[in-house]
Amino acid sequence: MPQHPFTIVVSGKGGTGKTTLSSLLVRSFIELGEKPVLAVDADPNANFHEALGVTIHETLGSMREEAFTRKIPPGMNRHDYVRFRFRQSLVEAEGFDLVAMGRPEGSGCYCFANDLLSECMTELERDYRFIVIDTEAGMEHISRGTIGKPDMLLIVSDPGARGLRTISRIREIATQLGLEQEKIHIVFNRYKTGTAPIDIGNESPIALLPDDPEIEAADLTAKPVSQVPPHSPARIAVRKLAEKICSLKKAQTNT
Ligand SMILES: Nc1ncnc2c1ncn2[C@@H]1O[C@H](COP(=O)(O)OP(=O)(O)OP(=O)(O)O)[C@@H](O)[C@H]1O
Ligand SMILES: [Mg+2]
Fold this sequence. Notes:
The longest helix is centred in the C-terminal third of the chain and has 22 residues, at 233-254. The chain has one domain: Rossmann fold. The chain contains 9 helices and 8 strands. An 8-stranded mixed β-sheet has the order 3-4-2-5-1-6-7-8, sandwiched between helices. The chain is of the alpha/beta class. The protein has helices at 18-31, 48-52, 60-67, 78-88, 111-125, 140-143, 163-176, 213-220, 233-254, and strands spanning 6-12, 37-42, 91-92, 96-100, 130-135, 152-157, 184-191, 207-210. The chain binds adenosine-5'-triphosphate (ATP) and magnesium ion (MG). Magnesium ion binds next to helix 1.
């Protein structure tokens, strides 16, 4: 029986570590044999590919502009052409594929285009064990409902009191959109030993990612963050998180 992919949306305030976590998660799932993984860059300022060490040639946004306006090759209808171009915009790498959504549309009616692209996405998604969606800062994607209902929503936050407001705001919107509480989890990032993370009520964070000089070094030298050495503390912590998610997925499949 074909497996249903497990979809994870990584959300949070600007600069909290969404892309870092997303790329380390992709890497961990591959290491755990949970592949192929689909990496989706839902941030219009696409940079998930850099964190994963691959190159993108176009985003779905730019592809849409082109595929729906240019003359299509003889013998092809627009529907087939869009499907063909959609497949072309997918980046294929070792253990994972990546698709970058690009900018949302400007003015004009894109209903046909969007319906067709979401049909392509739905078809594509069936091929993967895990789908990791890196989003833009804030709650736009959640409030617009563009991301649908994931199996898990990870809210990345710094472990200090400043993060609390964003956490509750994202949680509130996700809940209003019908996402079950048990699917929403908090990840504290850049945790420094010796400081206590803020109290988030009667739950505990699903992961605590340490502040990691290896991540900083990768950033400074423009190396893909997913390729930090295996002993890097943040990488180890994300690997543990990935193992936890695999167990949750298994438990969900067995019920
Ligand atoms: N655990 C960590 N240890 C050290 N540096 C980190 C850690 N996590 C993230 N960073 C650094 O913090 C910065 C922001 O990280 P990242 O780009 O992953 O955040 P983001 O939430 O995706 O940002 P944006 O909202 O701009 O998309 C980067 O310079 C990254 O290297
Ligand atoms: Mg980012």
